[in-house]
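Researcher: First entry.
Model:
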Amino acid sequence: MRIGIYVDVAKVDQPTGIGLHVRNLVNALAQIDDRNEYLLYYQSNLFGNGKPFPCLPNKPNFRARPIRFPVHWVTNHPSLWWKWYLPRVLRKDSVDVFHGPNHFAPSFDPEKSIVTIHDLAYFRMQVHEAGENAMLQTWTKHALQWANTVIALSENSKRDVEELGVAPARIRVIYGGGHVVPEDQIQYSRTEELKKSLKLPDKYILFVGSLQPRKNVPFLLRSFARLKKEMTLPHRLVLAGHRDTAASEIDRLVQELGIAADVLITGYVDASQLPLLYKMADLFVLPTLYEGFTLVTLEAMAYGVPVIATDTSSIREGVGEAALLVEPDDIEALACAMRSVLTQGDLHQRLIERGRDQARKFNWDQCARETLALYREVHERAIRGNLVLAQ
């Protein structure tokens, strides 16, 4: 097969959840597949002198495929890109299967097209600016109508996709894995360097994620402030992630709660630094309102950090019985859960052990094998369809 994957979201210098998912999927496919040809599509600028794709596998059957196109037109004139130019390139390249791993799919041959839906939060709440939210809804609907098969990252996302009118038979659930570095590759020698560069405290509670409204960080801040009032706690709260649309509100709330000296907002943390950031934490908390399927809880568990999360959307699907779950608006319950994990050694150790077992259930090798099997299935179905038409 000649397989095309749209990897534009993974080319950025500071990839977050979806970008890291695409990078890990491509690398895992490269580990298991020497037979099929992969073209990794991404937008280049009009003159073709942009930066090369940063994570191209060192395998002869994987090739970067930059497409020259005006930089701003994908956003300003999306129909030209998704309905005309990109499909034209795919037809010219004789692609057998096309995979859009980030919500969108071009108007390419429907029988050869797959789209991955990570989550549909922007259909349920204002995740981005109004114009961007509307654009995401429009082109996600186009992809769901157009693609032969939809990959959902969880059963929760599958139900959300079904609510938009997609038949269950067209949806395949394929879980991803966390962005986890093997123990022997963790750069322990750089621990002091990381502490100094991020100004990390000796003891801390960790949150990893973009500072946007659906992450529900104000809930975590209020619970943390209550905990600090109730007991002498040596821990600070570390918020690691892009300063997104909720950053200003978070800054104000930190001041209002009087916890500015106990809260550290790091901004984006490079993927190479995350293993140490996780491993030095005493507790990981995800206070989110909605997730299609979250990998940060799996990452924390894999690195031996006990996890507390909100019992919403797909969270239980990922953490199983290996985390403490609270309602996303119960400040006292979250404060109580944090106090219990930090003060009860047996509970702390039990969550670590269960977490490591749970994290092993989700890995990129399995994700790649299931994805490759789907590529073959879609390709064979398209061949059968063409034979019927020929008759």
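Researcher: Second entry.
Model:
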Amino acid sequence: MGELTKERATASLPIGGRYRLIDFMLSNMANSGIISVGVLTKYNYSSLLDHLGSGSEWDLNRKNGGLFILPPFTSGNLSEPRGKIEAMYSAIPFLSRLQTDYVIMCDASVVCKIDFNKVLEQHVQSGADITAVANREEDDYSCDGQDVSFEFSGETLKDVFIGQREDKSSLMSMGIYVLERERLIKLVEEFMSKERYNLEKDFIQDGFINRGLKINVYEAKGTVLRNRSIESYYKNNLRIMENSVRREFFGSDLPVYTRVRDEIPTMYGDGCDVNDCFVADECKIFGKAENSVFCRNVILEAGAQVKNCIIMQGAKISAGVQIENAIVEKNTCLSSGVSFIGAPNSPVIVQ
């Protein structure tokens, strides 16, 4: 995520105005009745800790279970984790204390709506070693180095690819996996002893090809927004404003929870022109805005123009400023008369 994650974790990036990326996966867990959640952090996680707090918004401030923040460096190793397996090694004490039979691992940067009860039910019925949640992407979807694709021959899993997909009909992993808790602990300890740290490459792909690992793939329906780059994050924020996507995420009986700030409503001044925008609370809108996302406490002065932008919390856009196809960082103050114009596929970051 480049400059966007220089001082914050990817999971704490704002999306849809008042939400953070991690809110969607935590809400899926809360709506599925999950009461014990461990959040593996990597670096720059102070904003994430501030957002999560005690976990009360997701009903995770409880005596039995609850929300546990699992920072790195608990084993005395001060280097950045080299993969998910090494990151989970520091979580073994947490996993060992759990009384559950199964563990669900999720990528917090993926935005979707999913019922984990249905995933677990299919996993148990399949008798597989691990279940991967995946979806079908558009034909023009471009894989990156993290993507895992599953190729089938009929209903039989034929091959597992990383960083590519041989067939446009392949299911693409969403970074969500289900397996037995004790098996997860054993595989982490075993793979750490062999200096193998990549869950998808060293365990899933190699296990399927060379060691007979039985993989069940659960096909998720609906919209899946992967936030792997500045471009995808920018496009996904704007996609949430589409009618079908907005209704899917926010119009169901399964709400998306986030930290409540109890701030004053947004004020729209005389003469403002706002069209197709997501606007959070405590903003002051006097200028012109089109197809943009405003986080909390943003000031848009009269005479300022914003189009196809993400304006983060506390930013101030002065009169005479023109911004298009841009991401304006938190607490940025833009003086009168400046102009920032990015490309639709390559937004400019203003800070």
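Model: Note on the second entry: The chain has a mean pLDDT of 92.
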